[in-house]
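Box S2. Input/output pair 1.
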Amino acid sequence: MISSNAMFDWPAIVAVCSASLVGVAIPGANFVAIANRALRCSRLQALSMSCGFAVVNSLWATIGILGVGTLVVHHAWLGQLLQVLGCGYLIWFGTRLLVRPVPAPQQGAPHVNRKSAFREGLALNITNPKSLLYYCAFLSSLAPAAASGPTVALMVLAVGACAVVWYSSLGWLLSMPSIAARFGRHLGKINVACGALLIATGLFELMNR
C-alpha cells in the first residue's frame, strides 16, 4: 500500500496554497467587483461571482503547474508582454471605475442575476493578464517538476478553495445589513478611491518593470 506521504508532496502543496492566499488577498479588480456585488445587489450574487473567480484561478493554476508557465520564465518577451497587458488592464479598469456611474442598490435581485454574477466573475478574471501572469509564472516555480497526479490535483483544488473562501468571506461580510447600509451610501467614493489606486499601481508598475 502506498502511503499518503508518498502520494502527496505536502511542502509543495502548502507553498502553493500560501502563495494563492497571498495572490487573492492583494486588493485589485476582483476585490472591487465583489464589493460592488455585495453592496448593491445580494450576498448570493457575491458568492456566485467568487465561484467564477475560483474556476479561472484553478484553470491558470493547472496551466502553470503542468509546465506551460515555464514559457513565461524562459521567454522574456512573453513575460514582458503579459506585464504590459496587466498594467494596461489595471489602468483601464481603474478608469472605468472613475467614469462609470454607480447603479442604485438592488438587494434581493432575482435568481437569474446570480448566473450573471458567475459569468461576470469568469469574464473578469479570464481577461485579467495579471492573474494569468501570477499563476502561470509564480506558481509554476513552486510546483515540483515531477509532481504526482494527486499532488497536482490537490494543488489545483487548494487554489480554487482559497479563492472561494477569501472572496466569499468578503462578500458575506460586506453584504451584512449593517455594513451594507454604512458603506453602500459611499460606494461611489469607494469606487473612485479604488480606481485611482488601480491606475496609480498600473502606471507605477509600467514605469518600473
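Box S3. Input/output pair 2.
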Amino acid sequence: MSTIAEVSADLEKWTVFLSDLSPYSDELLCKPIEGKWSIQDIISHILGWDKGLTKTLIQIINNEQVALQEHLDVQAFNDASVAFGRNMKPHDLLNEAIAQRKRMIRKLEMVSESAFVRQFLNSPYTMEYFLQQIFVQHDRHHKEQIMKVLPAID
C-alpha cells in the first residue's frame, strides 16, 4: 500500500516527462503515432483525466459523496479530451497539462489518509488503488508509447 506522498511523487513524474518534451517541434508533437493519436493527443487525453480527477478530489475534500469510477463512456470522454487539445498549440498544451497535473497533486495532498485508503461508495476502488492502477500505470503506458517515437536530442 502506498501513501499519498508516494503516489504524489509518482504522479509528479508525468510533469517532469512533459517538461522534457519542450525541445521537440510542434510538427513532431502533432505527428500521429502508429496511425492513431499524436503525442499532443495523448497529452490532451491525460489532461482530460486529470481535470476529472481534480473535480473528484475537491468533492472528497469537501466531504461530498462521490463515486470513484472510470467515466461511463470512456471513448466519448477521450474523444472530447483529444478534441480539446487539438484546439491548442502543442507547447501551450504541454504547459497546461503540467499546470493541471500540479493542481491535481495539490488537491490530492489535501485528502485525508483515511479517505485515501477507504473504499468509496458504489465503487470497487480505494483512492490509492485508483491512482496507482489507473493513473500512474496509465502515465507509464503512454510515456513508453511516446518514448518509442522520440528522436534523441543532443
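Caption for Box S3: Helices lie at 4-20, 26-30, 39-61, 74-86, 90-108, 113-117, 127-147. DSSP finds seven helices and no strands in the chain.
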